[in-house]
Amino acid sequence: MTDTTTVTTTDTPLAKVLSPAKAKALATHLDLHTAGDLIYHFPRRYDERGEHTDLRKLEVGEQVTLLAQVKSTTVRPMRQRRGTMLEITVGDGSGATLTCTFFNQAWRERELRTGRWGLFAGKVTDFRGKRQLNGPAYQLLRADATQDEAAEEIEEFAGALIPVYPAAAAVPTWTIARYVREVLETFQPPDDPLPGTVRASRNLIGIGKALREIHRPSSEKDLHLAKYRLKWDEAFAVQLTLVQRKARAAAAPGRARPRREAGLLAAFDAALPYELTEGQARVGEEIAADLARAHPMHRLLQGEVGSGKTLVAVRAMLQVVDAGGQAALLAPTEVLATQHHRSISAQLGALGRAGELDGDPNGTQLTLVTGSLGAAARRAALAKVGDGSAGIVVGTHALLYEGVDFHDLGLVVVDEQHRFGVEQRDALRAKAAQPPHVLVMTATPIPRTVAMTVYGDLETSTLSQLPRGRSPIASHVVPPERPAFLERAWQRVREEVKAGHQAYVVCPRIGATEAEEDEEPPADNEPARRPPLAVMEVAPILEEGPLHGLRLGILHGKLPADEKDAVMRRFAAGDLDVLIATTVIEVGVDVPNSTVMIIMDADRFGVSQLHQLRGRVGRGSAPGICLLVTEAAEGTPARERLDAVASTTDGFRLAELDLEQRREGDVLGASQSGKHSHLRLLSLLRDSKLITDARAEALELVAEDPTLAKHPALLASVAALVDEERAEYLEKG
Fold first, then answer.
1. Where in this chain does the record put each Helicase C-terminal domain (predicted)?
2. CA of 555: how far to CAs of 310, 507, 527, in Å?
């Protein structure tokens, strides 16, 4: 029984406010345990239904809500097409009746039994002179409801703005609404955590009013003000967390690694066969200045595929080696780590072979540490890491293992950071005596508000120019309605090979034995699909068919490391014409002679992933072409995604499109942490101005009060909105 004599706060267990059965249902099905959990379980949308209407006064085209009783039910087959139609006749006691129809929903007959009273909402239509509601929303009144309870349900259902909650089958939205009403009766909102100056300057309503209006809005205007205030709280909490972290990082002690005039970096620059792009030079200066400070650098380097990020990272690593330290480059896969090791070795030349016959005695050594190294090779590599003779260490997560000890780790470069968890980055940083400088690289362009919200504690550098000599990439969709296009695609591969070039064929899966339950369900409005195409299925078909006679290779993540490396070496050396692969080639693989890529089942990949993949071609002087093969029909969301990818090579525009089509919780790491997204209302795209404003206020407040000691309520609010796990995720350095 509800106790209305006590005050309910956000910390009050629901079992003390609601009945034990209700509290248990909310805990079991929705993971809601306290009054605060329920109060912050915001509606996901609001329905607008007409005022409660008399059956005799209905007009065609009107949006209505009716209180009526089920008089009869009939299920019959449809005449013109397959399926059934359920017809419910309802009346309100005035003698007037109305028909409600449901198509292929005969199961509703079980609950819409004759005699049940309920609320029915929908648009009045006319069918053969009879008024009806087609597929109306409805809520049946409880048979044991008192007159007051029925009146309350009617008011909740038929009001101007009806909240629709994230719900469960056992706890539907109107049940949640009823429980929220019960809690709000005794709810005492917390002291407003936002400083009064911020509320006044940003025209924000109080937290108590906002929490009531979000659940039971008095009007559209009041709902807007409530949403705006609660969005502000979310944005402000995240920005305060990031600004505080950035301030702490800037104040932390570190070791300066200043540039040396006549060192390795100067020799490397002098030997470069081309000039740095304007962007590479500018970003290089930003990083050099960071490294020269006695505080750890925390910088994000983002740039389009092929914009020359690795060269920028190599120059930063050489500056640290010049200053007596070591640099570690952490790559997400063995293929990428091996590729980085090979390309950096080629870039350094004799400078990276100190101690060898053809090495520069003033140079350094480069070593590779991966999980597949043999015992002897591993011992040799770890010895170089431990005594400092290896100035640059490239590796996978194997660098994180116990037994990999650095002599003086001064810089950590993390490539494609989104593939590493917080714990992995921290483990590598912990191998330094003092916090090392950190450079995070990503080839996935990041929309501005995402960068501000997810990477807000890092300085950001962007490379937007492609190096001179890089060729444009043309992309085209190969659709199901044009089967001749696919034949032409394979002909194009043969033509490129004949001209001396190479090709990739990318498939979403390795083989038919992979568990199909791992497949994501199709998007809304898209039909059920066959299993995605697999490398091991496609390769023999191509070998015997359209690519017969060409030299084909296979590459995927489950191959032994030495076999993967051998395949990549053969492809890079031109001994293979076509590489049939999974997304293992998505990042870092650099074979300038590759000019064409065919992506099978392209609709199975994300927008940013497609953009990354096609960046593997056109890396030399010959133009690249990417063909997106799909069975997605015109007009479907999947096809629209592919059309968008084909229409532009602007990675930032595509990144925004990708964000629009994903749950924003994923952007903030909900999928990594396994928790619900704490962005309940805030949209990183739609609320960009609000986020920018919150950032400005956060910078000002932290400058005045770095620990928020003068604002204890705000500190507690931030802790509640950005829990420790999320705070760790936000710490990108």
1. 485-660
2. 23, 10, 31
